[in-house]
Amino acid sequence: MKLNSTQAKNSFKYGWLLSRIWPYIRPYWFRILLTFMVAIPLGLLDGVTAFALKPFMDYVVGKQDWVFHIFSHEYTLTWQLFAFLIPFLVVAFAAVQGLLRYLNEYLSAWTSQHITNDVKIDLFHKLIYMHPQFFDENSSGVIIQRYMNDPQTASAGIVDQIKTITTSLFGALGLIAVMLYSSWRLAIVGVLVLNVAFLPVALIRKRIKSASNKNMVIGGNITTNINETYSGNKVMAAYGLQERQEKDFITQIWNSFDVNMSLTKRAGWMSPIMYLIASVGIALVLAYGTHLINSGIMTAGSFASFVTSLLLLYKPVKTLGNTLTNIQNIFVAMGRVFELFDVKPEITDAPDAIEMKSLERDIKFENVEFEYVENTPVIKNLNLTVNKNETLAIVGNSGGGKSTLVNLLPRFYDIKSGAIKFDDVDIRKFTLDSLRRNISMVFQDNFLYSGTIKENILMGNENATEEDLNNAIEYAHLQDVIAELPDGLETMLGERGLTLSGGQRQRVAIARAMIRKAPIVILDEATSALDNESEALVQKAIDNLMQNRTVFIIAHRLSTIKNADRIAVINEGELVELGTHDELMAIDKGAYKALYEMQFRSQEEVVK
Predict the structure, then answer these.
(1) With helix as H, strand as E and coil as C, how does 91-115 read?
(2) Would you say 14 and 331 are in contact if contact means Cβ atoms under 8 Å apart?
(3) Is 491 helix (H, G, I), strand (E, B) or coil?
(4) pLDDT (average), residues 499-520
(5) pLDDT per residue over 356-380, tens digit each?
(6) 550, 389 in Cβ contact below 8 A?
(7) What is the DSSP letter of 495?
(8) CA 291 → CA 53, 304, 509, 529, distances in Å?
(9) Cα 88 from Cα 93, distance rounded (Å)
(10) Environment class of residue 243 by beta-carbon count within 10 Å: exposed (0-12), middle (13-18) or buried (19+)?
(11) Cα angle for residues 122, 123, 125 (degrees, 5° grid)
């Protein structure tokens, strides 16, 4: 699946999306409920100031005492007492509101981060078990964007935005209650205006989805560009590619700008429209309110309280509009997140998979066919048997399928037809973990992780003993390297192990393969990128690794090929010749002989 072609098809299925996010919300439901319970009084307290204006205007400004009855008893509050109490009450309510706001923000941030972390952890778990072809088809930037940024937008935002909606909604309800208390007639006008003000929000949904998807693709391309600039910095400098990278980056940045401005152009009119509608509502209220005051139906204090509530109401209404827009963004991101959860690895364990213990007899390729792209075969009807502890050198033309062939053994890719069998058992019947545990691989450019040399070696077998570790170091000829490093085995490696030379990295990788003690070894051009001195040391390490193991070796070094038990010549995905060096050289106009004449004779002459 190519992730940059996503459409977030379910981004408008709100019930479906909430049902998918619910398992991540459920463990924190009490804190989330508490967040919303705090948000309710927090919103309602917005109406306190407006509510306080009515008694202030009617009793304090009008210098009238408030006479009221409770259980047939008459009580009086003087206007002087009102004048004294109201400022203190307003400050007290503000202090309570501030405390509630802090508690609300803290609870919201805590739950949002926990939900986000849980989603990211589960997505990363799925990512690390995806098949290699998934990584072939998707750039690093798109993967980072989809697996890290989208969960942040989706899960972190959902609690915060719903909290904001709760606060704004109850703030609006509190102010509407004050308006109803002040004048139900004017309140009807205000609520009608409020409903009309929400209409623009419904018109922008699909534009947000389109812009969000486009921005996701562009963001992934930008991240890929930065990753390639970092990883390929030497190639960039050597070939003067700075302008090319910069040009691509500038194009991507401005593409993102165009998408965002297109959305702003279409969504930006919402706020002015809502403001205009609110202004029309205020004008109607002022005209009608003046009539009610002049008619004696409404007091000046009630009118002041109502107008203040209406003015304050604009903020939560605008916030609700913006929040609903943001929530649509969140739902689009959420739709993309759950698309990722629904992506299934193409290579998985069979329901009745068994454990592979070791290799007892042989490895067979039976009528194997494979293709990366449909109807473009890379391996064609290949038949081959490799006996236990035999070393098979694989040679052939560039792009002929040599690396593909060995990558089929650990099931990095699955064959289209035929079978690969270990001891007559199809490898698809083994669990992936046990299959790969029985194979050690050394590549041309071995990846070392950030961490110590010791940690990188023990990645081959985390249960290895100290003796196993020391033996692996000795057989990989790493003693001198470790002795020269300031912290020895505990020396921290830089990203990709770039603090070591190429030969040193290869020997660490060989030690990692050796400590695995796997019966099958795959060597894919393990010395092709090294100088002569490094190659000699690495070759000694490889010779130790190959002892008493079944070995598949793709090599450019003539001595390695000649010392193999047999040589398989793979051209255009087909096994064209198989035999020892001498047997293949005896074939007149043979493929191996032609290859030897072109690539290997010069090596032999240098040795002589």
Answers:
(1) HHHHHHHHHHHHHHHHHHHHHHHHH
(2) yes
(3) coil
(4) 85
(5) 999 999 999 999 999 988 888 999 9
(6) yes
(7) G
(8) 20, 14, 88, 91
(9) 9
(10) exposed
(11) 65
